[in-house]
Amino acid sequence: MKAAFHFRDIVGRYSALFCDVWGVIRDGHAILPDAIQALQETRATGVPVILVSNSPRPAHDVSRQLSLMGAPDDAWDGIVTSGDATRIALKEQAPGPFFKIGPPGGDDLLYDGLDIAFSDVDEARAIVCTGLVRELGSEPEDYEALLTKLADRQLPMICANPDIVVQVGDDLVWCAGALARLYRELSGTSVIAGKPHKPIYELAYRMLLDRGWKGDRKTVLVIGDGPETDLAGAARNGVDSLFIGDGILGGDLNPSDLSAVAEELAHYNASATWFAPRLIW
Questions:
Q1: Among 112, 113, 106, 185, residue whose Cα is nearest residue 151
Q2: Is the domain of 150 the same as that of 206?
Q3: Beta strand extents in 114-225 (DSSP E only)
Q4: Do the domain assignments include residue 176?
Q5: Which residues contact 133 (CB under 8 A, 6 or more apart)?
Q6: Reduced to 3 states, what is the DSSP secondary structure of residue 103?
Q7: How far does Cα 216 stand from its chain's mean position?
Q8: Most buried by CB count within 10 Å: which residue of 87, 194, 245, 251?
Q9: Confidence class of residue 163 from pLDDT cuts 50, 70 and 90?
């Protein structure tokens, strides 16, 4: 792993970018101007940028959220989300019924236009999980009894957000991926279409091709702050990665010590080609 504190020093090596959202271009509360500038400058060199997010919401809603936060519309060429890839998985299991785990109302756009039904635990044929439900607890362990009951019924869980945690300002918030991980530990099975799994990347490559990209897949760079999602996804696709340190691992890293950063990533069985504390042009 090498330092890439200024993105302009390495961007010429690549034909396209797959860039994470939370922890890279926004911190959960605000847009990060330096990161936006880096993406704008990248596009100005002719390198396309696809935002690849594990948000359980469709891409158009993530675009709306970023716009409301003040993000310009010229920093990326397109967006793909775990929500987009999950909708394909839901269609394959339709009409269900599904037992739904997630914040009330918050992720309902995921189901728009899909002919699916919902039910209680006893009637469900599958589970769809978009996140934790405040009423059931704020830690994954609070869900163990519920998930044990579901695992005993051998119901597959479709996880719409594979992230374990996400950065919200200075805090880390548990995501649906933490519940899917616990469900597997309880002998349940999970279906995950978002990062680091193949479906979301196939959507991203398809978006590049639809926009006239003629590069080699091996010349795409993945940018992200998640060892188990972004970096693992890059490794599975055989492409380089830029690890952003001031994200979900920001409190655990000394950005001036590359060997210590690499050692921390090794705890997640992950590695990166490049490292930068933040995405800066």
A1: 185
A2: no
A3: 126-129, 156-159, 165-168, 171-174, 189-192, 220-224
A4: yes
A5: 101, 102, 103, 104
A6: coil
A7: 23
A8: 194
A9: confident
- Domain total of the chain: 2
Q: How far apart are the first and last CA of the chain?
A: 19
Average pLDDT, integer, range 199-219: 95
Percent of the chain scoring above 90 in pLDDT: 69
If asked whether residues 169 and 89 sit together in one domain, one would say yes
Sign, CA dihedral 129-133-139-143, equals negative
> How high is the pLDDT of residue 170?
66
Stretch 89-95: mean pLDDT, rounded?
85
Average the pLDDT over each of 43-57, 99-113, 197-211, 218-232 and give the range with the smallest value.
Answer: 99-113
Whichever domain contains 28, its CATH number is 3.40.50.1000
Give the H or E element holding residue 34. helix 33-44
Report residue 180 as tokens: 């899917």
Range of the domain at 21: 2-83+196-276
In DSSP notation, 218-281 reads GGEEEEES-IIIIIHHHHHHT-EEEEESSSTTGGG--TT-HHHHHHHHHTTT---SEEESS---
Q: What burial letters (b/e) apply to 110-128, b meaning 16+ CB within 10 Å?
A: bbeeeebeeeeeeebebbb
CA nearest to 39, candidates 62, 20, 54, 60: 20
Side by side, the strands of the sheet bearing 78-81 are 2-3, 274-276, 240-244, 220-224, 16-19, 49-53, 78-81
How far is residue 212's CA from residue 43's CA, in Å, rounded to a whole number? 14
Stretch 179-188: mean pLDDT, rounded? Answer: 95
**Per residue in 245-269, pLDDT tens?**
988 787 777 777 999 999 999 999 9
For residue 60, the SS3 value is helix
